[in-house]
Amino acid sequence: MATFKGQKIPICYASCSIGHDENHTLPKKLKAIAAAGFDAIELSMPDILTYGRQIPESGAEIDPKDYATLRSVGQRIGELCKKEGLKILILQPFANFEGWPKGSKEREDAWERAKGWMSIMEATGTDMMQIGSSDAEGISSNFDDLAAELAELADIFAEKGFRIAYENWCWATHAPTWKDVWEIVKRANRPNLGLCLDTFQSAGGEWGSPVTKSGLIEDVDKDELDRKWKSSCEELSKTVPPGKIFFLQISDAYKMDPPLPDKPDESGLRPRGQWSHDYRPVPYDGGYLPVEDFTKAVLGTGFRGWLSVEVFDGKGPEKYGDDLQPYAKQACSSLQKLLDQAGAED
Asked: Core-most of 55, 93, 196, 283, by most CB within 10 Å?
């Protein structure tokens, strides 16, 4: 638990965020997360696949669509989490679901994956799945189409008491901002469909940039950029009901030196996606984004739900070594500092 103005706030850690080394096994991660004081984890599909290779029942590469095996691995992970006193808050990250043309192979694949992930959720004991706003080409730009797709999936999830947290990925094709995904969620109008907000995704999409020397968006001057950012945060705090925020993810970002090329990489991933995947430390650990502004805005809605540390820090091993405990403790203390700063009077 953390505290905000004397109130207890449940805290979560994304399991994929601690360590890239194969020696950093899931059981070790869970022990470090629990010892640091976290209440839950975000369970990632990469961690399920990695852990599945390390246990005798599997012991080999697992097909991401081998849902029978993934359910078995997921059940084992659920038992590990219970042993450590951790809840599995969510299964993530589900990508490129919404907006495919009806009858397309891509849409068929998206629905097959969604139903397969539902079965894994049942096995692990979680009731929520995160969907990131699609970064695929060839999808509809019509928010009504995107909302209708999510509403249809939400109705299926509702039959099992499951929820969907829809997150803006700042490199998404049509919905890169919190305001975009909030508009889609409003149009879908389902009680079990809400928002996953993220300090990196919003601050890194609306204020920061990995492709400029300044680390800022440079198509407007700095004063105007700051004004627009503050206005966005204020609008969020005044317009989004706290009950529609299912959880808040927290991380910062390194200023890129040299800047990333302003084009997709060989895999087709856009620059902000590349930035997201390996250059996101915990707050107060080398980053520069205005994450306090966004955290304060979310808390300003009245939200007092789950806060989750989701970092992807390629510099983590050189800063913290092979011991996962200091990394997890730093994440917890950084989160509490962020809450203290967000709660301080202006």
From this structure: 196
